[in-house]
UniProtKB/TrEMBL annotation:
The keyword Transmembrane helix applies. It comes from the Eukaryota. This is Reticulon-like protein. GO terms for molecular function: oxidoreductase activity, acting on the CH-OH group of donors, NAD or NADP as acceptor. It comes from Cynara cardunculus var. scolymus (Globe artichoke). It is a multi-pass membrane protein. Belongs to the 3-beta-HSD family. Residues 385-584 form the Reticulon domain. PROSITE patterns: RETICULON.
Length: 589
């Protein structure tokens, strides 16, 4: 298709390979009246598989000359001038990766980069500069924002370094308005999501994969505004058109951009996570508790000089779910004539389809979930013990519970020695059996059996205890494995090189002494009583309990690693080195 230079406008998309930049480039090319220069930090353009297709808008635009690529380094103004020379509009956006948790690098890219862009635009006589900011520049991470508008001041306490640097960059863009003929404005989208998202949905998925997936973090009543990425690209185009035609109303101004559909934060998150196969949490966990746990993990990681990105994702989700943040977009609707082109529900559907590679692996049918053995049933062997402890037959389980309670009372509560208790129990058992043998014919209305028939029937009813050879071999093998494992642990403790194992053994011995030696009757009674309760409860709420246990074990593991990392590794004594080596032979010459 031939390009009419009289009708087409040339623009530069700085950060054209970022999350929002990619969508903006495609939208500009679809409009048909733009010649687009994609400018980014990569030395050369690398197209994704979806963009490499012949019928993709970007690939087709590069082949026809409607799009080109330029390498820019925002820290050097000369590369920016080469990229924007001859254009009349510059769309500037940066990604959250620009910050990279490094203040100097983030400041040089975001703040100094904006200054270099503004100076380059003034030198190249660019007419309009539209900056993509964020709504979080007015959020102080402490107070809710309900229907906030553009009169809100910048926050005095930002939720992270990226938002603080973005506020400085946005202010510099607005101050540069109407200098040397350059008109500027800025947009503040809220919680941008969509295909290619590297922040919002990946954080939710990371939390869903961890032990936190079983909990609703914070309140499930908080409301937030979300913005689909195509709506942000549409708003940037609307701002350019309004800046060109209604310059005095739009220039030097900021506008909040949302989907016009405030939603409960957790409901929004669960819609996408359930679409990807993750289960819905049902247990609420206060945000302050999670925040303290995350702070503890971050503190331990900082003291051990290594980073774990899981707590970063949890921290991001806490910030999203802890406060209400809704914005009034009437100014954008009135002045730049913005309205969403993709609804929130459609945006969620499109986003879920684009993240199918991160979906949770699910069974092919729900029937498999129904007939699949539970963890407790598999652990208990799927036999009579599992049926009793999991209350498959309530009458049988209740009788066994009464029997266990009676044995505990007979041997532990009564102040008798074990031999006396056993003798009394055998005596009681003989009396009961003798009485039953005498009363059973009368109870059932049967005539007394002959001695021969009685003996034969009794011999058939007496259980025959027999241990198979395979079972015996398995038992001996188990004992041998336990013996070898104990020997390996003892050898490791003697070497003194594994402090983690040392702490595990010390804690285990202490618990054994505390529970078995000092409080054996109490521990045994609680164990027997709770065995009929805990197994059943765990089977009903295994997902939630696993999540809680995982969090507790992670905290304990981090504490152990933090303590053991500070213990110096013992060095062998010089007297113990090479003591077994043979002495060197003397020269016989």
């Amino acid at each position: 298709m031939a390009i009419d230079d009289d009708q087409s406008k040339t623009c530069v998309v700085l950060g054209g390979r970022s999350f929002i930049g990619r969508c903006l480039v495609v939208r500009l090319l679809k409009l048909g009246n733009w010649i687009v220069r994609v400018a980014d930090s990569a030395q050369s353009l690398q197209l994704d598989p979806s963009e490499s297709k012949y019928d993709s808008p970007l690939n087709r635009a590069f082949s026809t000359g409607r799009a080109s690529y330029a390498h820019v380094d925002l820290r050097h103004k000369s590369t920016i001038i080469n990229a924007i020379e001859g254009s009349e509009v510059v769309f500037y956006m940066d990604d959250i990766d620009s910050c990279n948790h490094d203040f100097y690098f983030g400041y040089s890219i975001i703040v100094r980069g904006v200054k270099n862009v503004v100076n380059a635009c003034r030198r190249c006589k660019v007419k309009r500069l539209i900056y993509n900011s964020t709504a979080d520049v007015v959020f102080d991470n402490s107070h809710d924002i309900i229907s906030g508008n553009e009169t809100l001041l910048y926050s005095s306490k930002f939720k992270n370094l990226y938002c603080e640097l973005k506020s400085q960059a946005e202010a510099h863009v607005l101050l540069a308005n109407d200098i040397d003929g350059l008109l500027t404005c800025a947009l503040r989208p809220s919680n941008v999501f969509g295909p290619g998202d590297k922040f919002l949905l990946p954080s939710l998925i990371e939390v869903a994969k961890s032990g936190w997936a079983k909990f609703i973090i914070g309140s499930d009543q908080t409301i937030s505004d979300f913005t689909y990425v195509e709506n942000v690209a549409h708003a940037l185009v609307c701002a350019e058109v309004a800046l060109a035609s209604r310059m005095f109303i739009v220039s030097g101004k900021v506008f909040f951009i949302t989907n016009f559909e405030p939603a409960r934060s957790w409901q929004f998150a669960l819609c996408m996570l359930e679409g990807l196969g993750y289960y819905r949490p049902i247990i609420k966990l206060p945000a302050v508790v999670v925040r303290l746990i995350v702070f503890l993990i971050k503190w331990m990681h900082s003291n051990m000089n290594f980073r774990d990105l899981k707590h970063v994702s949890v921290h991001n989700v806490i910030q999203l779910m802890s406060h209400t943040r809704t914005y009034n977009c009437s100014a954008a609707e009135r002045h730049i004539e913005y309205s969403p082109i993709v609804s929130l529900d459609d945006g969620i559907t499109l986003t879920v389809k684009s993240f199918t590679h991160l979906a949770k692996d699910l069974p092919s049918t729900r029937l498999g979930d129904l007939i699949e053995q539970s963890k407790m049933e598999e652990l208990l062997g799927s036999g009579e013990v599992a049926d009793i402890l999991l209350w498959r037959d309530e009458r049988r389980s209740f009788l066994c519970f009464l029997g266990v309670g009676f044995l505990y009372y007979w041997f532990c509560v009564c102040e008798r020695r074990i031999i006396s208790s056993t003798a009394y129990l055998l005596l009681l058992l003989m009396v009961v059996l003798s009485g039953y043998a005498r009363l059973s014919p009368k109870v059932y209305g049967c005539s007394r059996m002959s001695p021969r028939v009685s003996v034969c029937s009794i011999s058939r009813t007496i259980p025959c205890f027999e241990v198979s050879e395979m079972c015996m071999r398995s038992s001996v093998r188990t004992v041998a494995n336990i013996w070898n494992a104990v020997g390996h642990v003892a050898r490791s403790l003697a070497e003194g090189s594994d402090w983690s194992l040392f702490f595990k053994v010390v804690v285990s011995i202490y618990l054994f002494k505390l529970l078995i030696v000092n409080f054996f009757p109490t521990s045994l009674g609680l164990g027997l009583a709770f065995s009929f309760i805990l197994f059943f409860v765990y089977e009903q709420y295994d997902v939630e309990i696993d999540g809680l246990i995982g969090i507790v074990f992670e905290i304990i593991r981090q504490c152990v690693v933090c303590v053991t990392s500070r213990i110096p590794v013992p060095t062998p004594s010089p007297l113990c080195i090479n003591t077994n080596k043979p002495a060197k032979l003397k020269d016989q010459s």
